[in-house]
Here is the input.
Amino acid sequence: MLLRSAARLAAPCRPLTVASPVSPPALTDAVLTPERREAFVSRLSNVRLPVRTTDGEPSAAVLAPLCRVDGRPGLLYTLRSSALNKHAGEVAFPGGNRDRQDADPLATALRETEEEIGLHVERDQLWGVLPSLLSRFGGKPVAAYVADVGELRMEDLHPQPDEVEDVFFLSLEHLCKPENAGHTQWRRGDAGYSLPVFLNGPHRVWGLTGIFTHILLGTLLPEWYKHKVPYLRPVRERDSERDSRSGSY
Here is the structure.
């Protein structure tokens, strides 16, 4: 038995064949199918995030417009006017506060989208609604609706200059690339949290819009979007003192 085992050990080894990782297909227009929509809605019920969520009635709503520009699927964003009192100069999805005449939060998102960028969207274009989150100004519950608005030409949009400084498109391929997705860390005393950030586009996408984008991509495109947002524990006071003595920070 020993001799046979030794013979096997001494025998020339066959070269190992390492399977190359299978890359998902290209993110073309064909990805936005009825089957994809069905799977997206199903996965939404299982979304769990370590951020503040709310089950209350949203008092504000935004629309996350899935669209195609030159045949490429992606998302449409706005850059808010720097003259606004709140969220000035921030990247956002079109949307705003709910008015009394709005029948529901979806009506708010659709109305605000048309007012802000001149894009009319019908209710039957809705794909689903993301978990409502609290804004950092006043803790206002915000709903985010995902709709497929079809093929767009950017020159056909008409942003309201008092509210919107820019409207821009980011392809799903761009958003899913690891080099374009990062994170930032917020600290307040011993408390802290991490936020997704999307880089290398016309404007940085972060804050509440970054969180909604992160949820949307992970739920809609799990084969392509693999970004994880690590949580970094706050540095304790004694750790800071030790690091200070060692000259590091």
